[in-house]
Amino acid sequence: MLTRVSRIETTLVHTWDVLQTLTPDEYQEFRPVVGREGASGFQSYQYRMLEFILGVKQRQRRFLRPDGSHATVDVFDIHGADADATRDLELAWKGPAVYDAAVSLLASRFPEFGIEPQRDFSQSYARSAPVFTAWKAVYEDAEGHMDLFQLGEKLVDVEDTFRQWRFRHLTTVSRIIGFDAGTGGSSGVEYLLEVATESIRQPLFVELWEVRHALLA
Ligand code: HEM
Fold it and tell me: Is 183 within a domain?
């Protein structure tokens, strides 16, 4: 299933190949319509759902404004979200993220490491030393833990492709509107650069990225 998810993400990444051919003047023809009343990707409830399922549980999102100051937006405050969308968002917010399922599997396979499987799912996942130790044991003996090793790599695929979507969005936005401000009120490329950088500095499936460095060390 995770293979299918990352294939879908790859397909979405490739849609930028077409969109990046949009010239600034062509985009300007419809930008005032799509951006009316401050509408932007900030209002995509499906994107927020995806973030929640991947474990990003930041309700107040800080964003950079054109004047360099920071403002916050409540990720539940979405233009035109109907009752069904709001309920789905609430459920995804309170529910476990995909990585929580992997962590509880690790907990049952490695009881000796004392992994705590239960946590407050409405918070972003925080790095755990026992989880890191468990993934390290898996990666140091991939042959002996082939199913967990494959699970780890498929999770990395999902996060890696999610990052790629973000970076392609960023580079496409840069070539279409340059450093112009976003219709949602952010500084545009500067804001997108900030969140893209954060996605590398603070990975979602954090121990799976950390283990790569640990193996080399
Ligand atoms: C090609 C023209 C596009 C431009 C110029 C553009 C520009 C921007 C800008 C400047 C932002 C920052 C928020 C703001 O101030 O508005 C943003 C956010 C966003 N855009 Fe786009 N965008 C484009 C296409 C798309 C497409 C095709 C999608 C999805 C299919 C998309 C999805 C999003 C999402 C989900 C966010 C929120 C990202 C976050 O908060 O991390 N954008 N976009």
Answer: yes
